[in-house]
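Ticket reopened. Same input as before:
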Amino acid sequence: MTHDRFTYLPFSRGTAMAENIRTTIISHFEQVAVEQRHTLAKLTDDRPLMESGLDSLAFAIVVARLEDALGVDPFSVAMDAQFPVTFGDFVQMYEKTYQNAAT
Amino acid sequence: MQLRSSRSLWESLSTTGRGHDTRLWASDVAVALSELGHGSALSVSLDALRGRSVLVSTANQLAAALALIEADGLARRLVLCPPDLDPAHLPYVVATAGVEIIITDNDAATMPGLGGVRVAPCSRSVTHGEIDRTAECETQWILFTSGTTGVPKMVVHTLRTLTGAIKPIGALAGPVVWATFYDIRRYGGLQILFRALIGGGSLVLAAAEEPLVAFLSRAREHGATHITGTPSHWRHALMSGATQCVSPLYVRLSGEIADQTVIDRLQAQFPEADVAHAFASTEAGVAFEVTDGRAGFPTSFVGRLDAGVDLRIRDDTLHIRSPRTALRYLGSTTESLLDDDGFVDTGDVVEQRGDRYYFVGRRGGIINVGGLKIHPEEVEAVINRHPSVRMSLVAARKNPITGSIVAADVVLASGADGTLDGTVLERTKAEILAHCRSALAPHKVPASIRVVNAVQVTRSGKLARGDA
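Engineering reply: fixed in the latest deploy. New output:
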């Protein structure tokens, strides 16, 4: 997952949509961190997910809530995809699945 | 006990004189059982039932009750067909139970072809005539277990196992009128039919698809004093406001875990009533009743032999040995109903806190969150304590990280979903979650909450769980 995160989106609308997805993801990370009393690291694209401050239960909750919020679960759709390693990978995976679901 | 000397239900009714003052009320008709002394509700002669395997499949509960009273002691087997039996399973049932005659109030033409099986109509009224009701055998009563999916599972009971928990009501108790949300073709409802017939009293029967409010107002018209159902039935009743129209002396919950919240709410609604909960299952029979107004049961019940009922806790699961358990499963199952010591494994997991055992859930219903196990019932009990909540259903939701996570559907006390302002709704959900976090380990807290209009309840009155 080294390609540019916008390459598979139509540039004009895609940027806005992608930024929305990123914002949604970040807000769910923050919300769940507060609920689970975890301290969240700064969510940069190169941040390994394992160092984000969330444990696996918190991740599980984030994924469930993102499915409710965005209507997609990339983990169930992209069985062949690599498991995301960094926060950037994670966001890309959602953007890609969301875009595919919309087309 | 009088039944020991009676060979059939009919004999026990006539020898105790109960038949004379017992009335069964259906939605549009009542039958005084004394009428059966002068005739029959069956179109087939009772002699034709002698020694036969008879399936009772009726739309109307009163028709079924009359057929059961008439056929007990004559038929070799009585198969009690629940109203929701998938017709596709009927050939299996007929083959497994060796059914020779089907008593029904349905149009015989609608029955699937069941080569060689005689179809005998029955009705809700008694046609007068000379009847010989001399019993000649101990009839096997075949009941369906309460599981809802797949091929039906049947167990063998007898009048003796089914009526072991029933005590005659004292002469001073006044007239007793039972009403039940259960269907009499299932274990819980059949118990109430027997209580009315043998214990002395009358019974108000629900019509198929009768709305709860209509049923409870009919129960009131007939002066219902004793009302029974599952906790789910009662939560529905409380939500509907229909409980305001009845004033029972006795309220009984069974079939599911009675949590403290539902007990307290019923006691508050019916301050004059004894609110009791009982443990019973089709396989294990009626084991015990708890009358102290508290959830769970005292640890002193374990090992205590009350009327021959013996409880044992093994692997945190309740096991029961008693003369009221079913005798065996029917059919070519390899599963054994009783263990080597004669105990039935109920599959109900309990947890000891202080001098009490509390039910935490079904062994088969566990949600596994990343290797940590959760009983949906314990999460529901916490959610239900929130004042805005009337009912909840907790289930596993598939999750790529932990295998499953906990998800909750919640019915609010206001009965509202879409009608609630979005902000209020979100705030209520956040409150319920905060309430759960204060009472439950993190993995037990629902990852998501949906506010819904209603949660589905099965025909046997239990929350419709996917695993049931």
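The longest helix of chain B spans residues 422-439. The mean pLDDT of chain B is 88. Please confirm and we'll close it.
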